[in-house]
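Hi,

I'm pasting everything inline rather than attaching a file, because the server keeps stripping attachments. The sequence lines come first, and each chain or strand is labelled.
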Amino acid sequence: MNLYEFCYGIIHWLVDLVNNLWYWLGDVLPWWFGDFFDAVGDLAASDGNLAVMTILLEVIIIVIISLVNVLNFIWLDRKFMGRIFDFYGPYYVGYRIGGWLQNIADGIKLFVKEIITPAKADKLGFLVAPVIFVSTSFMALSTIPLSPDFGIATNESGDGVPGGIIVAFAFFAIAPFSILIAGWSSNNKYTLIGGMRSAAQMMSYEIPMLLCVASVFLLSGSFGFEGVVGAQDDIWFAIPLALGFVVFLTCLAAEVEIQPFDLPEAEAELVEGWTTEYCGMRFGLFMMTSYLRGYIGGALATALFLGGWHGPEIIPGPIWFLIKAYTVFVVIEWMRWSLPRVRVDQILDLGWKRLLPLAVLNLMVAVALKSMGWF
Amino acid sequence: MGFSGYVLRPMGRTIRQFARSFIVGKPNTVLYPYQKLDLPPTYRGKHTLDFKRCIGCSNCVQICPNDCMWMEKLEDPELGKIERPGVDYARCLFCGLCVEVCPTVAIHHTVEFELADRERSGIKFGPKELRDDAYADKVLEERHKRSLPVLDLSKCTGCEKCAGECPEICIAMMPIEATGKQKPEINLGKCSSCGKCAAVCPEAALKMDEVYESYFEMLEPKLKLVNCTGCGACARACPADAIYMMDMPGTERTLKDGKKSKPKKRAVFVLEKCVGCGKCFRACKFDAIAMPGVKA
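And the predicted assembly:
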């Protein structure tokens, strides 16, 4: 049973339950009232409605799982950073579970804060930017299945979005535009510089990253998650494409905007970068989404290079997937708390002079492996 | 340098720190409300005040740079009417000058630092809240203590035996103007604390006593004899009992009924006992005491 069938069963049962009421009303009420409720029942039980409700339920389940993961990620990040810097990290809020509730306390604090829109800001852009940032990240999330049976599918076969990885990267790459909009519309020099830096940064990391992804596509012969992960049944792509994996992780750190590549929000230089003018839960959404992007990045690296949900059968596939995603995230965080921020010229230098040749080399390796017939 | 120097070495460094604080040991931080650091004994926290040592000279109040101390008049069952200092911790900067200047080392810093309160009045500590008569005896004495002869001028007859006995020749008999008497003046810098002067004194006017050395140069009061009316206000105000009122013979007036009045008095300072607080200067209503440098 896959997630679609599970959700379909629940929705079908619920619709049947409620339809009892509609059809009973249709029997009891006089002529055209009765017809109306009969029609409502028929509409509710129609195939299209059931499919839409099922996908909605799937999305809710996936989003809840990923939000819990985000809470874990923030907690993990803080604890890991704390131990690296020789302190405890969150400790007292949720004492028995290692300070895990601190994130929820912070969220409540952000909820009760005032939300201010700057007087001279471009109101539309200022409001739309967080929406784009958050929604595109969730869209990228929606394409990622945790296992063949545990992803957002549109039919009973359980297949995800065809060409899901392409779609995920497309949505993943929209965020710099929302950052640019946010930086421009805030009408503040720091946010503007942050937004421009984000655009400049995207120039440098996007191409090597997509070249690494292309090498994976080349080896697996598929654009979808199932095909790519299925091709890694024997050997993870991280082993033949080790070079590409390193380049991909570096670009991923730039993509999810964490130090050493957090140029758009460089606290030391630009006050809080492009989020300077955002406060309250808007900032909370940005922060939550940045960790969500960390989760998506970890999941993509897992699916592309680390064999996705493959692993010994003792642990179910989705758990394997999450374990690998967490590991990738921890490695990225390790890099984050170890390395200093690069300059704008340095990241362009890194992207064009170092990562791009390495990515091309990696692609050549993939071509060689494919033409030898080993994959 | 290059990749290994800029990337691998820092990352290796952080992972070693992670292992040190997570796997091998614990982080360096202290979980404050539950664990507390052992503070060094010289830590400057809340004050304690030894009521029995304190003489109420208000030197601490005068030296306080933030004006955060004040003298409070109290009625103590044991000590009678006294004046003791209180501290306002909203203004205190914990410089420790009050502790250093105290002539009897009655005020001390403790290691207590949790002074926060919800109201401003909650961090204003009066003398009763600061009182801890046992504390001063427990802590290690930092100030140098000397055994020195202390003169009780009311018993002294001016017999010069102490001056003759002193091996360091640091006692000189000085005449007191307009009284026809003399008193021993002791050069404390030369005194070797041998105690011979106290032993030889027939009236037990000189006694050896433990005296704390001062880090500060003390102000010295000076009497303008012309203005002195002999009222005795300075002697009553003196916290160190360093001022004695002495008769001036030959100043008796003949009253209407032919009897002679009592002679006029004058103040005599025993500067070895003076703590330089300036209370006599403030008590004198007739501008008879000069004390350059004292706060009005």
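The radius of gyration of chain B is 28 Å.

If the labels don't parse on your end, tell me and I'll reformat.
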